[in-house]
Amino acid sequence: MSMNIHFYKYQGTGNDFVIVDNRNGEYSQLTTAQIAHLCDRRFGIGADGLMMLENDPAYDFRMKYYNADGREGSMCGNGGRCLTAFARQMGIDKKDLRFIAVDGPHEASFRDNGWVNLKMQDVNTVEIGNMYFYLNTGSPHFVKFVSDVQEVDVYQQGREIRYNERFAAEGTNVNFVQEVDNGIFVRTYERGVEDETYSCGTGVTAAALTAAPAEPGEYNIPVETLGGHLEITFTRTGERSFSDIWLCGPATLVFEGNIKI
């Protein structure tokens, strides 16, 4: 059975998404294979994931996120920022928005420069290992600090960690982080995409939290990714606990179109 889909393509620091307006339920029947096809960079539209804007009685909207492999994914921070910008384009026009995603409720707001600020879930547990950190910022993230992030084979080393005995079953995203003059530079291997992406919102959030000074306080950490500039603001409340975490950055409409599948 063929289906016409009206879609929008958004990107946030190079992390790109196919977005559809599913508030009337017309795209709820899309299969895993169809979603994977839409995200395919050679045979489809091409994206790191697909999102659906849906109704929710208690919130301004609901976020449904699928990885590029077509399976429903965990929270995507850059996706949340792009879906917020899309919601505004679709007429949900408020200065501050509240939405529900797979990991719970989120708040979002707009800056004058077009940036979207997305509030992330509090983090109350961080595993601190030998040369690494492991924490969940809506998705599970392994964070490793390196001296030269440009030299890292992100695909190879990321895969090794993602598929090692510890993480193979549920998978983990893997972030390589270099401290630079003004903040950090982050490169991420993403599970579900199974490759390096230009930017990963929950990943840069995890990296910024682990890069913060040890003293409790309010922090603002600028982050560079292959896809551009982001900013994480948060309050450190303890050695392994953080609250009022905001992921801030651009979210841009690339194009819209129709595709028949």
UniProtKB/TrEMBL annotation:
Pathway: Amino-acid biosynthesis; L-lysine biosynthesis via DAP pathway; DL-2,6-diaminopimelate from LL-2,6-diaminopimelate: step 1/1. Coiled coil: none annotated. The keyword Membrane does not apply. Substrate binds at residues 15, 67, 77-78, 173, 190-191, 201-202. The active site is at 76 (proton donor), 200 (proton acceptor). It is an enzyme of class 5 (isomerase). InterPro entries: DAP_epimerase_DapF. It catalyses: (2S,6S)-2,6-diaminopimelate = meso-2,6-diaminopimelate. Pfam families: DAP_epimerase. Its main location: cytoplasm. Catalyzes the stereoinversion of LL-2,6-diaminopimelate (L,L-DAP) to meso-diaminopimelate (meso-DAP), a precursor of L-lysine and an essential component of the bacterial peptidoglycan. This is Diaminopimelate epimerase. It comes from Chitinophaga lutea. The gene is dapF.
